[in-house]
């Protein structure tokens, strides 16, 4: 007989919260009948300034099967939170979940840019990706390097050796689910190896909070500038250089100037 679910939740607080957030977002999407095009990430939307989609695409799922598969894998990978004795643990999990979500999304866009501009494959201009799989594949990879003896349990009955799980899952999902984003999953694996091998390091509470703060600022500003949501308390106006927008908080008189550089089907992740 297994342990009561309550004890599992207590031992995996961050994983449990993320699963709760993704499930709540899925329920909201279903209730409001929101389509993938409203929350997904595509190259075309990104160059139009919809940078907020890097976040919304990661935490959104359109189908129940997609949600269950990702959350089942994430629940198994939550063992990272219990491995503080080898340098992982809850803080490590939270810090690098943030890194995985942002960098894997940025890497996907970089791959799209290369394929479109260099190889003239226009198909990737409008491909829209949604799902938490980038982060899931990233954690598979980190765990495969840090704790290769672990197992990845899916749906409570399927078990894979974690050492081969990233590439096995990459190939399996690409064959079984034609709509699965190969590039999205691959980007999670690449960022996962960069973290596991120490190429991305130095994350602590200070940098995590700073990064989160800038993510919130960029998220809100891009929502406002793209016209996706009208924040009444924000007014964005151009300064001397039209490429450098200023963000004014109405009523407070404070102005924040940010650097902004121009950037030259559906896939589930």
Topology diagram in text:
Layout: H1 5-11, H2 13-32, H3 36-39, H4 43-47, H5 53-59, H6 64-77, H7 90-117, E1 128-130, H8 133-146, E2 151-154, E3 158-161, H9 165-176, H10 182-196, H11 205-226, E4 234-238, E5 245-249, E6 254-257, E7 266-268
Task: Please supply descriptive tags for the structure shown above.
single chain, 269 residues, mainly alpha, 3-stranded antiparallel sheet, two-stranded parallel ribbon, 7 strands, globular
Can you tell me about this structure?
- The chain is mainly alpha-helical and 269 residues long.
- The chain has one domain: Rhomboid-like fold, CATH 1.20.1540.
- Helix content is 55%, strand content 10%.
- It contains 11 helices and 7 strands.
- A 3-stranded antiparallel sheet has the order 4-5-6, covered by helices on one side. A two-stranded parallel ribbon has the order 1-7. Strands 2-3 form a two-stranded antiparallel sheet.
- Strand 2 (151-154) and strand 3 (158-161) form a beta hairpin.
- Helix 2 (13-32) runs antiparallel to helix 6 (64-77) and helix 9 runs antiparallel to helix 10 (182-196).
- The longest helix is centred in the middle third of the chain and has 28 residues, at 90-117.
- It starts with a helix and ends with a strand.
- The model is unreliable at 257-264 (pLDDT under 50).
Over the alpha carbons, how many angstroms does the gyration radius reach? 19 Å
**Average pLDDT number:** 87
Which residue ranges are poorly predicted, with pLDDT under 50 across at least 5 consecutive positions? 257-264
Shape: globular
Taking the sheet with the most strands, its summary is: 3 strands, antiparallel
- What is the name of the CATH class? Mainly Alpha
Helix content: 55-70%
Strand percent estimate: 5-15%
Distance between the termini: 33 Å
**Individual helix count:** 11
In total, how many beta strands?
A: 7
Would you list the SSEs in sequence order as H and E?
HHHHHHHEHEEHHHEEEE
Oligomer: single chain
The secondary structure category is: mainly alpha
- Number of folding domains? 1
CATH architecture: Up-down Bundle
CATH T-level fold name = Rhomboid-like fold
Widest sheet: strand ordering: 4-5-6
